[in-house]
Amino acid sequence: MDKKKINSALLRGRILKGVTYALLGFWALIVLFPFYYMIITSLKSYGEYNGESTPSLVPMHPTVENYISAFRDVPLGTYFVNTLIFTIATTALMLIVSILAAFAFSRLNFKGRDLAFTLFLALMMIPSELVIITNFVTVTNMGMRNTFMGLILPSVASVFYIYLLKENFAAIPDSLYYAAKVDGTSDFKYLLKVMIPISSPTIVTITILKVIECWNSYVWPRLITDDEMKFLVSNGIQALREGGFGRENIPAMMAAVVVVSVPLIVLFLVFRKRIIEGVAKGGTKG
Amino acid sequence: MEKQNLKGWLYLLPAFLFLGIFMVYPLIDVLIYSFEEGYNSASGTSFGIGLYNYSYVLHDPFFISALKNTFILVAITVPASTLLALLISVGLASIKKLRDLFQTVFFLPYVTNTLAVGMVFMILFAKTEYTDGLVNIILSVFGIDPIDFIDGPYAAKMFVLCVYTVWVVLPFKILVLTSALASVNPEYYSAAKLDGAGSFKIFTKITLPMISPMIFYLIITGFIGAFKAYSDAVALFGTNLNSRKMNTIVGYIYDMLYSDGGGYPSYASAAAIILFVIVLTITCINLMVRKRHVFTGR
User: Fold this and answer.
1) β-bridge mates for residue B36, sequence order
2) To the nearest whole angstrom, how far is the Cα of B92 from the nearest Cα of chain A?
3) B92 neighbourhood in chain A, CB within 8 Å
4) At the N or C end, where does chain A have fewer CB atoms within 10 A?
């Protein structure tokens, strides 16, 4: 009797497991399918795509002509380079600003520090939608529309990353600092030689998160650029869709979409653990 | 000591400059804008101070439509995505084989460009002269007539927007819930099993209460995020959201600021402050509910 009971429990467990895998597999399919679809569509020729009333899931005559026209007929290459410059400059500036501030908050003692930090934390609650209006007016008045300065400067400061770094710096034992002081090391040198190397995992994490954020930013570039040559990938691709070949030439559009998506997917696959950890620690989206 | 003070502030200076110019000043300025009546951005003059901008925005049919869209989006996607994420994370926690692979795949939408992938969704759902679109072809298997999801009826457009929003926000929620589930002390489970509790009972009596703080965290951030929806809608329906009746509050703010009908920073500011007040109110309500329902270990 007991054996029968155990057998039925085992069977139930197995069925449950099967259902679990089926559901997870189903969701994985839903996640992956758009990526698969953009790739196969980008490999179809214009004629092939428009000739199919039921889109086939395998391109019959794969071609790379769409990729060529994505770079030749529209300035996708320019968008790409712009985004690269924007991302690197913004991230680098953010790192410098955040590291210096986090160092001041965690290591240096000065009047007004705690008050300043409290005010900092309060800023975390401010949604970007609220400040973007004035920033738009400021940048316009300073004549920085359609410039990298106008794109980069308002995107630099990020209270949350300063906070994250400060927590990390604060966890470094004081004894190291006093030992370095006895040796006559200056504060700045201590920051460079000791604190930054020790905190490098966190620094890498915030770098990656900022890169993702920059690469995908849409609202600010859209507001601040109307010169096609200064577009970033997000608003560039939107412009392609509405004014460029997107309206008719879907396969070429999809080639552009693939080109825009690939860098971050590669970055993700390389730094998978770091990114997942970093987002769990401090990412927000949705 | 004087020197130390100076040094500290010197290190903070860059951060203060950036935050001061691009965050603190705008915050004050946006409030002023929102109360200045008849502000002219060319001459920098206004007629006076008052509530006219707010009244204008609240009577603007485009704003009402954006408000309605945003509330529908929030009401559907927040519960749907949280429940789905819970289901998926519980599934993930119960398996060993392929778990890493699934986790990697599920996280993929987080790193993708919302605008770019949104266009793929648009094509999958769109009905054109050439083709009914893949989704409609699948639906036709179940005997459903083709629907134009992108240019068609309001409910269909809303449906696509909700589907895409859930697709985009799910990775973050799955990630948070997966790590919450992993942190539940396994001894609780063994103790419950010893007492003969079934797996459903274990889930509702142990797992759910233990991860409830994280669920509430997700609900709060989910509300805040969904109220700020915008790029997903642009990706699916294009930048002219007003004419498609698919605008969101944030979209309304940006359109007022800069687009064909733009150039009205005062109206944009009033709308932004209304949004901020809504989000703040909902967050406070959430926190009050949280106090009553979340297990905190005490």
Assistant:
1) B49
2) 8
3) 24
4) N
Residues A50 and A81 both lie in one domain: no
Full residue range of the structural domain in which residue A267 is found: 66-282
ipTM confidence score: 0.90
For A260, the closest of B107, B113, B254 (CB atoms) is B113
Tokens encoding B41: 């951005």
Indicate whether B275 pLDDT > 70: yes
Residue A75 CA to residue A244 CA, distance in Å, equals: 10
Nearest to A65 by CA among A88, A78, A48: A48
Q: Which fold has domain B45-94+169-293?
A: MetI-like fold (1.10.3720)
Over residues B150-174, the pLDDT tens digits come to 888 999 999 999 999 999 999 999 9
**Same domain, yes or no: A206 and A94:** yes
What distance in Å separates the CA atoms of residue A231 and residue B197, rounded to the nearest whole number? 59
A112: left (phi over 0), alpha (psi -120 to 50) or beta: left
Q: How many CA atoms lie within 13 A of A116 on its CB side?
A: 22
Q: Nearest-CA residue of chain B relative to A41?
A: B120
Residue partners of A188: CB distance under 8 A and separation at least 6: none
Domain ranges of chain B: 45-94+169-293
Note the pLDDT tens digit of each residue in A229-279.
999 999 998 888 887 665 678 888 999 999 999 999 999 999 888 888 888
Q: How many alpha carbons lie under 13 Å from residue A219 in its C-beta half-sphere? A: 24
Helix, strand, or coil here: B45? strand
pTM score, whole prediction: 0.91
- Give me the amino acid identity at A253: M
Query: Between chains, do A100 and B253 touch, taking CB under 8 Å as contact?
Result: no
Interface of A with B in 209-268 (CB under 8 A): 212, 215-216, 218-219, 222-223, 233-235, 237-238, 241-242, 246, 250, 253-254, 256-257, 260-261, 264-265, 267-268
Rounded to whole angstroms, how far apart are CA atoms A56 and B44? 58
